[in-house]
Design a protein that fits this description.
heterodimer, A: 254 residues, alpha/beta, 6-stranded mixed beta sheet, 9 helices, B: 427 residues, alpha+beta, 6-stranded mixed barrel, 4-stranded antiparallel beta sheet
Amino acid sequence: MTTASPVSLARTAVAIRSESLCRHYRMGETLIRAVDGISLEVRSGDFVALLGSSGSGKSSVLNLIAGLDRPTSGSVVVQDRDLAKLSREELAKYRLHVVGMVFQSFNLIASMTLAENVELPLRFAEVDRNKRQELASAALERVGLRSRINHRPSELSGGEQQRAALARALINRPQLLLADEPTGNLDSHTGTEIMNMLREFNQELGMTVVMVTHERVLAERYAKRMIFLADGKLIDDRTNGPTIDDLHIQGGQS
Amino acid sequence: MKIPDLTELALRNLRESVLRNSLTTLGISVGVASLVAMLSLGTGLQQLLSRRLAKSGLFDTVLVSSRRDLRGMGREEERKGPTPGESRVLNEPARQEMERLPNVSEAYPDIRFVTELRYEDKPHLTMISALPLSAKSNDAFDGMQGNFFSSDLAAEVILQKSFAEELLGKTPPLGAADPSVGELAKPLLGRELTMRYAQRQSAPATHPPLRGNDATSADASVEGAAYSVVSREQKLRIVGVSDLDPETMRGPTRAKVFLPLGLAESLHVMQPTDLREISQAAADQPVYSSVSVRVKNPAQVQLVEDAIKKMGFNTFSILDASNSLRQVFRVLYAFLGIFGSLALTVASIGIVNTLVMAILERRREIGIMKAIGASDGDIRKLFFAEAGAMGILGGVVGVALGWAIGQIINFGTNLWLKSQSLPPEHC
C-alpha cells in the first residue's frame, strides 16, 4: 500500500469530532435518549459505517452531523465548524456547501426532472443557469444517467433514483458525504452498484463518507471503520483491515 | 435564490396542481372584479349625478339681487348686513365685477318680462326670459326639438312645451296624456311670432344744461333723469320646443318663452327696476333685477357667494342640497367599498387556504430542500412567490373582469334606457 499519496496525507486531519454528544427527545412523560453521550473522531477521507439495530440512534447521530438537528448537549464539530453554535442560516449554508446527503428513500422531488433535481442545490447556491446545467449533466454522466436527464424520478428504477440522488449530493463538491441506509430500498445487485459508487467517491474524490446501515456484510466489505451503537451509546469501534475488494482494486491498479 | 430562478420554480410548482391553483386565482379574480365593479359603479353614479346637476344649473348658480329691493322684510341677513346706504345698484359695472371674481365662469343679467306674443293674430300673454348661449348645455334642452339659438343676437325664440300647447290650442285636460314634443314642434318650428313690448328710450335733453355744475353729480343726473316708453314689435322665429322646464328653480315666475340674451339686451325692454332706478335708467344704464352667477365648480359656490355678499348684494343658491348629496355619496361609497372588500377578504382567505394546503402537502419536499441546503428564507420566498403569482394574476384578471362587468352594465343600462325612450348615458 502506498503511503505518501495526497489522500493519505489528508487523512491525518479530523473531519468530524463529537464530544459527549446527546440528543434527547421528550415524548409525553418519558425522556428518550436517542443519542446519549457519544464522543468520536472521524478523520478526513475516512469511510465510516455506523451500525446498530433500529432505534440504536445511528440515524440521529447522522442527522446531528448533517446539521439537520441540534444536539441537546455536547458538541459536534465538522470541518472546524461547531454546529451547535451556528445560526439556522449558517446551518443551511453548511448543509449546502459542506455536506452531501443520500437517503434510504432517495428523496428526489417527484415533480422535477432528474436534471432539475440534481441542479436544485446549485439554485440555492445562486449558480448561473448555464453553469448549473453543465454541472448537472456532468454529475449525471458520472453516475451513468446521462440518457435519463429529462426523466422524472417515477420513471426510473430504485437504483437509478439512488444514483440520481448521489449525483445531487455530489453537485456542490462537499467534503462530507452522509448516507442513511443508501441500499435499504434496493436489491443486492443494485445495492452493490451504489456502494461501489460511494467507495469511488471516497477514494477518487477524497470525500469523507459516513454511512448508516444495519447490514454488517456491506459495512465489512466497504467501510474502513465500523462504529457500533446501541441505545444511543457507542459500544464498539473497530477498523477494518484492507478489504478483499481493496486489495483487488489496488492489485489491478499496480 | 435569485429572483428569475425563484419565479421559474414558483411557476412550475403552480403548474403542478393546475386545478387547485386556477380555482384559487379565479376566486381572487372574482373578488377583485366585484371590488372594481362596485367602486366604479359608485364613482359612475356620482359622476353621472354631479354632471346632471351641474348641467341643470341648480348647483352651480348663485342668484344675485340688490339689497335695495325688498328691504324691511325682517330677514336676519338684512339686519346684520350693511345699511341701505352701503348697498349697491345691481348694474352693468357690478355684473362685470362679479364676472371677474375667481371661480366664476360667467355672470349674466336676468332679463325677464311679461309681454304679449302674437301667433296667427291671436295674442298670448306670457313671461319671457333671456338665456345666454352657455345655457345650451343645460339639461332642459336635452330632449328639445329643433335647435338652440344660432347666435346671441338672432331673432329667434325657444318655446317651452306648455306654451307650445297653448299656441296650438292643444292644452290637454288635467290627467290626460301629454302630446309628445315632436308632435307639438312640427307645426311650430320655423314659424314666426310677433312680440309686442315696451321699449325704454332715453329722452332727448329738454332741460337747460346746468352750467358751472359737475355734470356727473348725482343731483344733476336726477334732475335731468327722464326716459320715454315706446311700444315696439319684434318678429321672432321659433327654432326650438323644449320638453323640460329650464327654470324649475324659479317656481311661479318661471318663463315659458326664451330669447337669446344679446337680443334681449339690445331691445331695451322696460324692466320693473327701471321705475325704481330712474336716474340710471334715464342714462340708458341698464339696472338688473337679478344677475345669475355661474360658478366653475359646485364646490366653490360658498366662496363665490361670500365674495358677492361682501360686494353688497343678496345671494341665493341651493348649496345645502348639494352638501347633503355629497354626504349620501360618501355613505354609498363606503357601503359599496365594504361589500367589495368583503369579497376581496374571502378571496384572500382562499389564497391562504391554498397555501396552507400546499405547505402541508409539500412538507416532505420542504424537508428535502432543507436537507440539500435551502435556507428558511429560500423556502419562505418560494411560497410567497407562488402566492404572489396567484395574487398578481388574479388581480389582473379581476381588474379586466371588473371592467368588462362595467361595460356590460353600461350596455345593459343604455339598452334599457333606449327601451324607455330615454337618451343613453356615456360614462
